[in-house]
Amino acid sequence: MLQIAECLSRGELVGMLGDRPAGSEKTVTCRFFGRDAVFPQGPLRLALSLRAPVYLVAGLYEGGKRYVVHLEPFCEEPSADRAEGVAWVREWGPAIRERLEHFCRLAPYKLVQLL
């Protein structure tokens, strides 16, 4: 986390996979295409603790070495105190899920990677 904070203080971008828990127990469960799915809290919790803006990046695989990359602002300045942090993550988790569903519908037969 300290290295990420240092990078952000220099104006650098930091990317994290935000569509899978990667073994973490800190998750939020949302409906995803009509079924319960588990999404990680880590990227959002980190952004909140560092007060870093969150952008969604989705790469749609086009074949060969080609991707179509979509970048969109998600949350410009996350803010909540420590007690509100879990509620804040639960509030924004479904919004990320909605965007992931959007990209899956946009390209249903292509790999969608949400960063």
Structure description:
- With 115 residues, the chain is of the alpha+beta class.
- 34% of the residues lie in helices and 30% in strands.
- The protein has three helices and five strands.
- The chain has a three-stranded antiparallel sheet, with helices on one face.
- A hairpin with a 2-residue loop joins β1 and β2.
- The longest helix is centred in the C-terminal third of the chain and has 22 residues.
- The mean pLDDT is 82.
Summary, kept brief:
The chain is α+β, with helices and mostly antiparallel strands and 115 residues long. The chain is built from three helices and five strands, in the order αββαββαβ. The relative contact order is 0.20.
Percent of residues in helices comes to 25-40%
Structural class: alpha+beta
Largest sheet: 3 strands, antiparallel
- The overall pLDDT average reads 82
Question: Please, how many helices?
Answer: 3
Main β-sheet, spatial strand arrangement: 4-3-5
Number of strands: 5
Q: Over all CA atoms, what is the radius of gyration?
A: 15 Å
State the distance separating the first and last CA atoms.
17 Å
Order of helices and strands: HEEHEEHE
Q: Report the principal-axis shape.
A: globular
Determine the strand fraction and express it as a percent band.
Answer: 25-35%
- Low-confidence stretches are none
